[in-house]
From TrEMBL:
<protein>
    <recommendedName>
        <fullName>EamA domain-containing protein</fullName>
    </recommendedName>
</protein>
<keyword id="KW-1133">Transmembrane helix</keyword>
<dbReference type="InterPro" id="IPR037185">
    <property type="entry name" value="EmrE-like"/>
</dbReference>
<dbReference type="InterPro" id="IPR000620">
    <property type="entry name" value="EamA_dom"/>
</dbReference>
<feature type="transmembrane region" description="Helical">
    <location>
        <begin position="195"/>
        <end position="213"/>
    </location>
</feature>
<feature type="domain" description="EamA">
    <location>
        <begin position="137"/>
        <end position="265"/>
    </location>
</feature>
<dbReference type="GO" id="GO:0016020">
    <property type="term" value="C:membrane"/>
</dbReference>
<keyword id="KW-0472">Membrane</keyword>
<feature type="transmembrane region" description="Helical">
    <location>
        <begin position="248"/>
        <end position="266"/>
    </location>
</feature>
<feature type="transmembrane region" description="Helical">
    <location>
        <begin position="134"/>
        <end position="155"/>
    </location>
</feature>
<feature type="transmembrane region" description="Helical">
    <location>
        <begin position="167"/>
        <end position="186"/>
    </location>
</feature>
<feature type="transmembrane region" description="Helical">
    <location>
        <begin position="225"/>
        <end position="241"/>
    </location>
</feature>
<keyword id="KW-0812">Transmembrane</keyword>
<feature type="transmembrane region" description="Helical">
    <location>
        <begin position="99"/>
        <end position="127"/>
    </location>
</feature>
<feature type="domain" description="EamA">
    <location>
        <begin position="4"/>
        <end position="128"/>
    </location>
</feature>
<feature type="transmembrane region" description="Helical">
    <location>
        <begin position="32"/>
        <end position="49"/>
    </location>
</feature>
<feature type="transmembrane region" description="Helical">
    <location>
        <begin position="56"/>
        <end position="79"/>
    </location>
</feature>
Amino acid sequence: MNYLVLLIPVLFSFHQIFVRLGSREAETISGIYVSLLASTIIFIPSVANPTLDGMFLLYMSLAGVLHFFVARICFYHAISRIGANLSAPLSATRVFFAALLGIFVGEYLTLRVVVMSLLIFAGIVLISRPKGKADAFGVTLGILTGLFSALSSYFVKFGNAVDYNPLFAIFLGFALSTILMTPLAVRKDLSHTKFYLAAGVTVGIAHLLRYVVLKDVPVTVVEPITSSYPLFTLLLSAIFLREGEIFTLRSITGTLLILGGIYVYYA
């Protein structure tokens, strides 16, 4: 196995830690813009091998906007409101939404999907009230991150059916999302966004590694390992973000239930 795959969840987790640190120093909108710009720059070399088919551009543009623009706005705001260690497992519900969407497009409801759904739902309930009170909006943003990421995956699937050019597809998504974000950030103060810059670089490298390892490692191996990032986020936030994060038996149990649901699905 290509052991680079083990770096992917760690990088995704560091990305979330950097976002949380950045939210203490800068506006979230400014941070999103800087992180998108950094992620876009990483994939600029892919323009040397573009795919200019109209349907490919349409599908991958929709995928990119949903994942890198809409979902990132939801995720970064969720992290700023409820912290990294609660937002991470909520965003991992993308696996649940992907399975649910699959049923609507003709896939079968299996016992595995039912068990996964029950575990993830129980986890969300616990995370929603980690200390007996809820930030309903923050929790909703975390869950919406999972939903929009899952929707994005279906457009990626449609785009890949036209042509398989993942690096250019990622660049297209990041570049278009950066353009859409520019009017929102043009008058914002972009100073004190160094942690968001680090977040953009880190998550860009994580996406790059994910596509590199998928060339040799089966999706059924890569996805469960990638989806373990909430556990790493929990550990890293305990080390670097002890103050301001929520560590209770409810929140930790909720995280483990959501991860358990994901691994039941991939088992």
